[in-house]
Design a protein that fits this description.
Helix 2 runs antiparallel to helix 9. The longest helix is centred in the C-terminal third of the chain and has 35 residues. The strands form two sheets. Strands 5, 6, 7, 8, 9, 10 and 12 form a seven-stranded mixed beta sheet that branches. This protein has a five-stranded mixed beta sheet with strand order 2-1-3-11-4, with helices on both faces. With 327 residues, the chain is of the alpha/beta class. It contains twelve helices and twelve strands. The N and C termini lie far apart (87 Å).
Length: 327
């Protein structure tokens, strides 16, 4: 009996060690996107590709729908080492001021333009700034071109936004931009937006199609105004825990994140077409904004960015110069 108890004890101990080892190999990847969103599809494909390369060295597990917290919470957890990877977007401008470049309205003209900006500005200039702040950006993906929805009226010119209570992400520049347009913007966690719109706490919100449709905002919003006012990247970001992985695992994760960039662009372009059609089918009234009116109203935001962020004007000029030539 004593021998049997020893064997059972040894087995339990070995199982405990195996469980602990398995837990150590989990690579937690969090994001706020709903199932079917661009973030969800991108992170899932990344995990599939990375896990094929990792073998028994580790396994990427994706936690979407804010399961690990909102963007702010996940960035804090990256620093604590309790989340391994996250996919923040607009909020990065509140952590590193130079990332406010992507809060400038109508700056990024296309995905081809963004790919150039990523190579020429983000990786050599902005990524080191993020590193200094404790965030290790290993890939630049996409959140998308943003559109305006609301329950009051179609938005054609900035004047149509006057007095509209508009949910925006946690970015001071998004607040400043919509204040300059005449709206009443308020930051709110993405996970709270549906209820905020449903209860009338907010009249409207702004997001890419790939967030609007999966989050079912069409159920609580009547008007969709195609504005494309801001293009927001998504940043595959690691933190304190990244160093616990072997150099080989770190390399696999970084290389896979970078190889995903063109794949994400392809998924995003497809979703733009598919989801706009679905939003129309769902009954939303769709219109296009007066583009020049919004561009003209955006001048004060650029001026403030140039004055308040060191090197801001130069970043904007560099980004504009990377725009593909148009015929």
């Amino acid at each position: 009996m004593k021998r049997r108890n020893l064997l059972v004890g040894a087995l339990v101990a070995s199982l405990g060690l195996a469980t602990a080892a398995a837990a150590q190999t989990e690579i937690k990847f969090g994001h706020v996107g709903e199932p079917g969103s661009l973030m969800d599809l991108s992170a899932t494909e990344f995990a599939k590709r990375a896990n094929e390369k990792l073998g028994d060295q580790g396994k990427v597990i994706v936690y979407g729908s804010s399961q690990l917290g909102n963007d702010k919470a996940m960035l804090q957890k990256l620093k604590l080492g309790t989340v391994d990877l996250a996919l923040p977007s607009s909020i990065m401008s509140t952590m590193v001021s130079e990332f406010g470049l992507f809060e400038m309205p109508y700056l990024v003209q296309s995905r081809e333009h963004m790919a150039r900006i990523s190579e020429e500005i983000v990786m050599p200039t902005l990524v080191p700034k993020a590193e200094e702040a404790g965030y290790h950006v290993i890939g630049v993906w996409e959140n998308g071109f943003r559109q305006i929805t609301n329950n009051r009226q179609p938005i054609v010119t900035p004047a149509d936004l006057k007095g509209i209570k508009l949910r925006v992400p946690g970015s001071e520049w998004r607040v400043k931009m919509f204040e300059s347009y005449g709206a009443s913007p308020s930051p709110m966690a993405f996970s709270e937006v549906f209820v905020g719109l449903q209860t009338g706490v907010m009249d409207g919100q702004e997001n890419p199609y790939a967030q609007i449709y999966p989050a079912r905002f069409y159920e609580v919003q009547k008007y969709l105004s195609i504005s494309n006012h801001v293009y927001t990247p998504g940043y595959v970001t690691a933190g304190r825990s990244f160093s616990k992985f072997s150099p080989e695992v770190q390399q696999i994760l970084a290389e896979t994140a970078q190889e995903m960039q063109p794949v994400v662009y392809e998924i995003a372009a497809r979703l733009d077409t598919e989801l706009l059609g679905k939003l129309k089918e769902a009954g939303m009234e769709v219109n296009e904004v007066d583009l020049q009116a919004f561009i003209d109203a955006s001048a004060p935001v650029y001026e403030e960015f140039a004055n308040s962020v060191e090197g801001g004007a130069e970043l904007v000029e560099q980004a504009r110069n990377l725009a593909p030539a148009t015929n």
